[in-house]
Every structure is written in structure tokens, then in C-alpha cells.
Amino acid sequence: MIDPGLERWRLILGEPAAGSLGGLDGEAAGRDAALDWLYGRDEELDRRDIRRRPGGSGASQLTTVDWLDDIVRLFPKETVERLQRDAVERYEIHDIVTDPAVLERVEPNPALLRAVLRTKHLMNPEVLRLARRIVEKVVRDLVERLATEVRQSFSGARARQATRFKLARDFDARRTIRANLGHYDPEKRRLSVETPYFRARTRRNLTPWQVILLVDQSGSMLPSVIHSAVTASCLWGLPGVKTHLIAFDTEVVDLTSDVSDPVELLMKTQLGGGTDIARAVRYAAQIVEQPRRTIVAIVSDFFEGGSEAALVRGVRELVDQGSTVLGLAALDEQADPAYDRACAQRLADAGAWMGAMTPGQLAEFVAEKVGR
């Protein structure tokens, strides 16, 4: 039996380390088998001649259902989610999201949501119904989390005038400290507050604005597609904001009618295909109502498959008429962009704001514009 302190290293290094670290039994052996079922298929092991389990006449291989049952039993939740993510994204084990027996067992998480959206075209109606459970659960969690950030962004700015309503969120720390400095005790290094001060909050002046989200639905942009749908849903119905969501590849699809239902919206996206950003920008220009009250956010990696000159020209025309153009190379929780820097620079030169944002940061940007 292996020393408990070395068990973690034995699981990390796999069977080749058994000679040095010892064997495993009980649940540790089960964890080793579950890890081997997944990571033992890595082609790198063959190239390095360290295949963990040689072929032979041993027991039958685990099925995906058996493996899922085992990892839920043997590992903590965070590890289970990581194993499931590697299964669908690294090793493309599609039956995790296309086999009804498997779908009934998996715990919804963002990695499985991405896998469902990538493979839903392979699903029959029954499987699609089960897969929708994953979409609904993860999207609901995202909406609940993001809606809080959006509400905070639009809840109103602090005014400079004092208020007699004493709410903790409106506490004016700077003025309170300044006004009570006379009560500071140097020996105890303590400030006694006799008179606290608070600031009032005022609602923003919500003059109607259009927010047009143009979302590149190529496969590499999937996390941004998901968060764009959720962001649009959270912005939908806010006072003073009229939200549009447009998905594009080489075609342009206006999904605004489904913005209030991000689950339905995501189930209608078609990932893959080419990219014609200029065409999407032309469509946006056609639905602009008041240019100086419009934000056009282009969510894309900016690898233009159409005419880059037409794209730059379209962005410049929007800017010249007074619209605010945002070029977002990522709109997700990591805001870690991968994009065509040369194209992005040309769009910046044409007057677009270029960068990457989390959904909360986009909500703050919109709120700041709307509240002016």
C-alpha cells in the first residue's frame, strides 16, 4: 500500500511511477483507473513510449456512463468539472452530451454548455431535450450573477448633496473622516465618529439609447457568444435602453426577438462557417435610429473573411454620424482576447474603441453613456 503522502504524486504520474512509489488499492485505485480512462488516451503518451496500460485480455473498458458515476463518487465537485471539461474539449468525447444515458447523469457546468452548443446539430429531438437542461441551468446561473452587476451599474450615481436617509451603501467616508478629525486620539490611534455623513443617490437621466450587439458566431468565439446572449438579456427592458442582438458569420441573423429568452437564443445559434463582419456592420447601420444615442458593439476576433476595407469604411461611417463603436475581441468572464491586431488597429484608427470586456464592464460602459 502506498504512503498516503505520496498518493497524490502516484495519481499524477500514473502507472509508470508504480515501481518507485508503490501500488494503489481501494478508492485510490478507482481514482487512478478513472484518470487513466480519460488521460490514458492522450497521443503524447504513445509518442513518448509511456503508454500507461498495455493492451491485453483484462476487464472490459469503462463506459462513459460508468466513468461519470465513478468520478462523481471519487472526486470533489471542482475536480469532476475539470475532468468533464477535458473530456469534451480536449478529447472530444461527444457522447457526454449526445448520449441520453450520460446526459441524465451529468451535472451542468459551463464546459458542458459549450459542448452542447458545439454538438447540438448532431442530436435527435430526445437528446436535444435532455441537453437543453444543461443550457437552462448554466444560463440561469449566469443571468442571476450578471443581472446583479447590471442592476448595480444602472442603480444611480451618488449625488454630491447630503441626505438625511442613513443607508450604509451611501456612507460618505471621506467627508465623515474630515469632519471628525478633531476627535482623533493619537495615543489610541482611534478616530471617534460623532457625526456620520451620507450622500444621496439620484437616478440617471435615462434618455433612450440603442445598444446593438453584433456577435461573431464562429467556433472560437463561443464563450463570447454565450455571454453576449446573457448580457443582452440582462440589458433588455432596462429603462432608456433598446437592445438588439445580431449574430453573424457570412450571413446575418437578427435574434432580437429572442433576447428576453437567452436559452432559446443560444439554441438558435449556428456555430462555425466564415466571417463577414462588414456585412454585419452594414446591417447595424440600417437599424440605427438616433446615431448619437447608439452604441454598436462588435464582438469578434476580427479575422475578417469579407472585405476588410468595407469593414473599416462601415465603422468610420458609424463613428462619423455620431455612434459609439466598440470592438470587443472578447466578452466573457476572463476577457482574455485572441484577435487580428492589424485589423483591430485599423478599426481603432477609424474611431472605434477596441479592447476586451467582461459583461459587467460592458454594462458599466453602457450605463455611463446612458446616464450622461
UniProtKB/TrEMBL annotation:
This is Putative VWA domain. InterPro entries: LolB (IPR050458), Uncharacterised_CoxE (IPR008912), VWF_A (IPR002035), vWFA_dom_sf (IPR036465). Coiled coil: none annotated. Pfam families: VWA_CoxE. Signal peptide: none annotated. Residues 208-364 form the VWFA domain. It comes from Actinoplanes missouriensis (strain ATCC 14538 / DSM 43046 / CBS 188.64 / JCM 3121 / NBRC 102363 / NCIMB 12654 / NRRL B-3342 / UNCC 431).
